[in-house]
Amino acid sequence: MVIQELTNQDNLNLLAHMHFGRIACAQGAQPYVVPFYFAYQNSYLYSFATIGQRVEWMRANPLVCVETDEVLNSEEWVSIIIFGRYEELPNTPEWKMERELAYKLLKQKANWWEPGYAKTISRGTTRSLDPVYFRIQIVQITGHHGTRDPRDVIDAKSRAIEHTDKQSLHNILGVLQTRLFSK
Predict the structure, then answer these.
(1) Which of 109, 108, 103 is nearest to 91 (CA)?
(2) Which residues contact 93 (CB under 8 A, 6 or more apart)?
(3) Domain range holding 120?
(4) How far, in Å, CA of 182 to CA of 94, rounded?
């Protein structure tokens, strides 16, 4: 097995095709990680939630970490880690355009409102379903690609990824492997 670090551009190209990950926040020395859907555009991840522990903690400490991946098997995978800053998009006139952009980007993926808008009962109380749109400003991004064969390395210019519009990562990795093996 070979693990290769991805270039910044490879990370961003792959991120444009990914929509599900895990977001971590912290309060004091206690981390908290939850799954979430997101949409990437121009150095931001856009998402949606309802008021709860995650939103309360991100409001108090806006530094977050996001992990997203695609795993084909234990030897073939891609993982991207993002260090970022939480920015809430309040329902006010000055944030209207950003909220509309978040909605436009998110609605392109089926079930984008889950799990953030699912009815949640905690300690016998139903949580309020007031929507909270937010974005994560990408401060730092890193990624790695695992592959079985040392010849299966990702092209630094990510030509294959740039030309595979809206395919699953499985298909993207297949295109990369075919192009690399044919050299």
Answers:
(1) 103
(2) none
(3) 2-147
(4) 52
d(CA 45, CA 84): 9
> Tokens standing for 39?
């949409």
Number of domains in the chain: 1
The helix/strand/coil state of 99 is helix
Average pLDDT over residues 112-141: 70
Distance CA 20, CA 2 (A): 25
Binned at pLDDT 50, 70 and 90, residue 127 comes out as low
Q: Is residue 11 within 8 Å of residue 5, measured between CB atoms?
A: no
Residue 170 in any domain: the answer is no
What's the CATH code of the domain at 48?
Answer: 2.30.110.10
pTM score: 0.75
